[in-house]
Structure formats: C-alpha cells, structure tokens
C-alpha cells in the first residue's frame, strides 16, 4: 500500500471542505482522496491548525465543515431595513386620508365605493403613516383619521400643503391605480381644520379595525 504524505492529505481535505457547498462525511472525503489516505489523521491535524482562529473545523451530524468561530458570530450579523410595499388598496386609502383629512372610515368607504378592509387601515397605523385624530361631532361620534409626520418624511414633504396633484402622485408611485369613482383631490391648503372633531380621550374605545394594533402596542 502506497504511503500518502500526511501533509498532502491534510491539504486535500482542507481544499475539499473549503469548496464544498455542504458538510462532507469521512466517506465523502474518501471518495475524493487517493487510496490509503489517513482521513482521521488529516482531520485531527486540521482541527489543531484552525483551533483559536477566526474559522474552525467542526463536526455536524457526522459531517465536517468550516464555520465562523462561535465567539465571532456577531460579526456576521447584518441588519437591513426591508421597505414594506403598500398594496394598491392601502395606497388608495392613504391618498384619500391625506387629501380629505380628518376623515372617518365611513367617508373613506364612500369615496372608494367599497368597504374598507380592517387590515388595510391596520397596516397604515402600524407603519405610522396614519393616526387617529379625534371623534367627529356627529351621530355615533366616529373616529377620524389623519396623516403623521412619518407620512411627510416618507414622501419628502415639508408640510401637507406640498401634497402633489394626481399626475405627480402617479409619477411618484403614491397612487398606482386608476382613481375610483367619486374620488377627488382637494386643494391641500383647503384641508379641514378639524374644528368639527373632539380629541380622543383615555376612556374612548378604539374602532374595531384598530383594536388589534393598539393591543400589540400595549403588550410592548
């Protein structure tokens, strides 16, 4: 039986594990290495060589692989903020709130011509683009909705008076669908003052579509 140079065996194992897409077992290594190579000795030598280094040789489910040293795992963590794309219904609802605020859920439904999904307004509340402003001084005292400073920051607006017209909104991606029947874009300078609403009080019950979201905030 031909004696294989131990250092050559070690280098071969190192190369195979480095290039492998998944951990390799002793059998996998034996299929690649020359007959007579001492795999166990090569593994032991590699483990000793990489001990205390940034990369270490470890056994996972009877298979071998190189991995980042456990105490350096924090260096591999990457935090990225994934932008959350609004659905067409959410964009449309947000546009209505922005141009007609303060506006109630019923008024949103009247403008869109369809029933407002509780999930759609929940998403806008969760993202901080919309807030509950107060209660309308009308039967049932419905809660009114308006935009937030985060809305202005997100769309690069200094004030609500800088809201774009329909053409600009479509170009900016704020409104990517055809306007629903009855939708109009009022003059941003002519937005309601809110004099026909009262501020929310601690004892006020949140509307049904917002209760789940507010409950999560309380848990946090």
Outline the structure in words.
This protein has about 220 residues and is α+β, with helices and mostly antiparallel strands. The protein has helices spanning about 5-20, 25-30, 40-50, 90-100, 105-110, 120-125, 150-155, 165-170, 210-220; strands at about 55-60, 65-70, 105, 130-135, 145, 195-200. It has a four-stranded antiparallel beta sheet with strand order 3-5-4-6. Strands 1-2 form a two-stranded antiparallel sheet. β4 (about 130-135) and β5 (about 145) form a beta hairpin. α4 crosses α6 (about 120-125) and α6 (about 120-125) packs parallel to α9. Pfam families: SMC_ScpB.
Layout of secondary structure:
Elements: H1 6-19, H2 26-32, H3 39-50, E1 55-60, E2 63-68, H4 88-100, E3 103-104, H5 105-112, H6 118-126, E4 130-136, E5 143-147, H7 149-154, H8 166-172, E6 197-199, H9 208-219
Antiparallel strand pairs: 1-2, 3-5, 4-5, 4-6
Helix pairs in contact: 1-3, 4-6, 6-9
């Amino acid at each position: 039986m031909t004696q294989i140079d131990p250092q050559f065996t070690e280098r071969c194992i190192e190369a195979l594990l480095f290039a492998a897409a998944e951990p390799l077992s002793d059998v996998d290594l034996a299929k690649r290495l020359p007959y007579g190579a001492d795999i166990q000795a090569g593994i032991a030598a590699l483990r000793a060589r990489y001990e205390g280094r940034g990369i270490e040789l470890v056994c996972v489910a009877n298979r071998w692989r190189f991995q980042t040293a456990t105490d350096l795992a924090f260096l591999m963590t990457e935090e990225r903020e994934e932008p959350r794309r609004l659905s067409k219904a959410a964009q449309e609802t947000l546009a209505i709130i922005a141009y007609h605020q303060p506006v109630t859920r019923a008024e949103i439904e009247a403008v869109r011509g369809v029933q407002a999904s509780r999930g759609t307004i929940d998403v806008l509340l969760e993202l901080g683009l919309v807030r509950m402003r107060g209660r309308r001084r009308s039967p049932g005292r419905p809660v009114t909705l308006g935009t937030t400073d985060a809305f202005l920051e997100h769309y690069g607006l200094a004030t609500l008076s800088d809201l774009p017209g329909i053409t600009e909104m479509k170009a900016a991606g704020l409104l990517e669908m055809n306007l629903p029947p009855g939708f109009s874009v009022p003059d941003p300078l002519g937005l309601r003052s809110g004099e026909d609403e009262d501020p929310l009080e601690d004892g006020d019950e949140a509307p049904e579509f917002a209760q789940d979201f507010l409950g999560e905030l309380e848990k946090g």
